[in-house]
């Protein structure tokens, strides 16, 4: 095995274990959860941007195809809305009658479990809601008009992760925050879920030639998510999981091919979406 091939197998498991394992360790050691998540996100972003240059999946995907300006404009709205939605949902649930745990007079979230297990449980819960939110965005024509903006690019690189209409960011943000807020998961768990969203969201779209092997049963990143961006609808309507593929396996929508490593063409058939960010924002309302 050549060195470059060995590296392409090791990149993903090493970085994800280091970032998420390091996050669990640092929070258990008493560090501020939001700071840990922020540092983990920044380190992941720096590594992904450098690796896209050193080990690209497609060299031409590192260059703008008229999409860079719109992608840059989506960044602040994505982070701004996400930063607002979660605290608002938590506050709304607390104000509107308290947590389910209080209403039922029994703690619903297993706060006594080791943090790592709480994190896994939280991922399962959030991914269930996000699986259906994402699938509905493909299957319900009105919702697809919002989500199409995420799917129309003909290339995948790290900034596709935040390329989403504000309507989609609000819709999925609320559905992501409600289950954990209702169940009463703590700030440590919420920070770790946020960190997982960052590192796995970056690897989901990254233009890095990394291999998954058996991890393609667990993670909805890299080659698995490229199928989801195929121009062929019969390939694209699969692999809905935003970080993991648990629920795609359960509901029969996991998709992978042995013969081809990627769809030949990405994007949307008969793409009518304008290139300008401002025109894109108005697409769903026309
Ligand atoms: Zn999609
Ligand atoms: Zn995507």
Automatic annotation (TrEMBL):
It is a multi-pass membrane protein. It is found in: Endomembrane system. GO terms for molecular function: glyceryl-ether monooxygenase activity; iron ion binding. The chain crosses the membrane at residues 7-27, 33-51, 72-95, 115-133. GO terms for cellular component: endomembrane system; membrane. Residues 119-253 form the Fatty acid hydroxylase domain. InterPro entries: Fatty_acid_hydroxylase (IPR006694), Sterol_desaturase/TMEM195 (IPR051689). One of its GO terms (biological process) is membrane lipid metabolic process. Keywords: Lipid metabolism, Membrane, Oxidoreductase, Transmembrane, Transmembrane helix. The keyword Oxidoreductase applies. PANTHER family: ALKYLGLYCEROL MONOOXYGENASE (PTHR21624:SF1), STEROL DESATURASE-RELATED PROTEIN (PTHR21624). This is Sterol desaturase/sphingolipid hydroxylase (Fatty acid hydroxylase superfamily). It comes from Litorivivens lipolytica.
């Amino acid at each position: 095995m050549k060195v470059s091939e060995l590296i392409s197998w090791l990149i993903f498991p090493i970085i994800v274990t280091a970032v998420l394992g390091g996050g669990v360790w640092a929070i258990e050691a008493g560090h501020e959860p939001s700071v840990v998540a922020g540092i983990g996100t920044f380190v992941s972003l720096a590594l992904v941007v450098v690796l896209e240059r050193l080990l690209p999946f497609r060299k031409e995907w590192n260059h703008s195809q008229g999409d860079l300006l719109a992608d840059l404009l989506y960044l602040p709205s994505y982070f701004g809305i996400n930063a607002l939605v979660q605290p608002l949902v938590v506050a709304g649930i607390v104000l509107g009658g308290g947590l389910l745990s209080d209403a039922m007079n029994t703690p619903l979230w297993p706060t006594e479990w080791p943090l790592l297990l709480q994190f896994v449980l939280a991922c399962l819960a959030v991914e269930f809601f996000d699986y259906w939110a994402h699938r509905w965005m493909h299957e319900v024509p009105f919702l697809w008009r919002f989500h199409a903006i995420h799917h129309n690019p003909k290339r995948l690189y790290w900034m596709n992760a935040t390329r989403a209409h504000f309507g989609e960011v609000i819709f999925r943000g609320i559905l992501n925050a409600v289950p954990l807020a209702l169940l009463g998961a703590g700030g440590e768990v919420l920070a770790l879920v946020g960190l997982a969203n960052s590192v796995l969201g970056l690897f989901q779209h990254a233009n890095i030639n990394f291999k998954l092997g058996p991890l393609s049963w667990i993670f909805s990143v890299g080659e698995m998510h490229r199928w989801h961006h195929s121009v062929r609808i019969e390939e694209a309507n699969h692999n809905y999981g935003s970080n993991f593929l648990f629920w795609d396996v359960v509901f029969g929508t996991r998709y992978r091919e042995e013969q081809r490593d990627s769809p030949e063409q990405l994007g949307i058939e008969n793409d009518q979406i304008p290139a300008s960010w401002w025109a894109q924002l108005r697409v769903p309302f026309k």
